[in-house]
Specification:
Blueprint (H helix, E strand, L loop, with lengths): L10 E6 L1 H4 L10 H8 L5 E6 L5 H11 L9 E7 L16 H19 L17 E4 L16 H18 L2 E3 L1 H4 L8 H4 L10 H18 L29 E8 L2 E11 L5 E11 L1
Parallel strand pairs: 1-2, 1-3, 3-4, 4-5
Antiparallel strand pairs: 6-7, 7-8
Helix pairs in contact: 2-8, 3-4, 4-5
Length: 289
């Protein structure tokens, strides 16, 4: 493998299990991560670190291989942590993690991420979230037991694990996206939330859309400075993450004309006329032998 000297834009890191793994869509469908990536196109790189089948025990072991000891040069905008669908498998199942251990594992994940993403010279405590990259903890989704392929899950258990996520978030100054509630898991009727789950556990297209909308609404509310900049043509607005590099309308073009060995450079600037069609405005000349 040959190293590619590619500059990474500010990063958004998505860390989770299969629901993150499949976040760019299932069998050609849309996914919450792909929708998010589209929003941040030319602004930030969305890095999917989802691992199908993994629980928080596996996640803790993965941490040194996912999060570098020094933060990326361009920095991290925010990180999502989306584990619990497998931890909440019923006791006796291979993927099950007891709820108390699950909570402690989430705390370890948060602490490790904060250590890895904090500038080397930062002396503030990790408990002081004013200097921390936002970490958004996402609760496991509901379970439609009737549609799931085996009898190793229960919706009420998923709810309990989601409540533990909220407790961890409160204790670690993290933000919570309640996916369980977002998808309607508190309803007594599985039909109310079942269509958001393509197989009873993993997200359908409507489920992915709801998670995406919930996440972007949360960012716009709690971290508006990290939302995509929308005003000022996406680059010169008042707040948000701007588009990278010059806008198309700002690009400079050089037109070379040869006359008896003399090179004339017409420096033009692309602009838009009143009906939105590109025009070239002559802004200067330069000649040399």
């Amino acid at each position: 493998m040959v190293g590619l000297p590619l500059r990474i834009r500010p990063a958004i890191v998505l860390f989770g299990d299969s629901i993150t793994h499949q976040g760019f869509g299932w069998e050609g469908g849309i996914g919450w991560a792909s929708l998010l990536s589209s929003d941040y196109s030319r602004r930030a790189d969305v890095l999917n670190r989802g691992f199908s089948g993994y629980n928080t025990r596996h996640a803790v072991e993965l941490l040194p291989r996912i999060f570098a000891t020094a933060p990326p040069t361009e920095g991290v905008l925010f990180t999502t942590v989306f584990f619990g669908a497998n931890d909440a498998a019923l006791p006796g199942e291979l993927q099950h993690v007891p709820i108390d251990e699950y909570g402690k594992n989430l705390e370890k994940i948060v602490a490790y991420i904060r250590t890895s993403q904090k500038p080397q010279d930062e002396e503030k405590s990790c408990a002081d979230d004013s200097s921390n990259v936002p970490i958004i903890l996402m609760t496991p989704p509901p379970v439609n037991v009737g549609a799931w392929k085996s009898n190793d899950r229960a919706n009420e258990v998923a709810r309990e694990y989601g409540n533990r996520v909220k407790e961890v978030a409160a204790n670690t100054n993290c933000t919570v996206l309640d996916v369980f509630e977002l998808l309607g898991g508190n309803s007594d009727d599985p039909e109310k939330y079942g269509h958001h789950l393509r197989d009873g556990l993993h997200l359908s297209e409507s489920g992915n859309t709801l998670v995406y909308q919930g996440l972007t609404n949360l960012i716009a509310t709690d971290f508006i400075h990290l939302a995509p900049m929308l005003d000022g043509q996406g680059k010169y607005g008042k707040i948000g993450i701007p588009l990278e590099e010059d806008l198309w309308s700002e690009l400079l073009y050089s037109v070379i004309k040869l006359q008896g060995g003399l090179q004339h450079f017409a420096i033009c600037k692309m602009s838009l006329d009143g009906v939105g069609s590109p025009i070239c405005l002559l802004i200067g000349w330069r000649s040399h032998q």
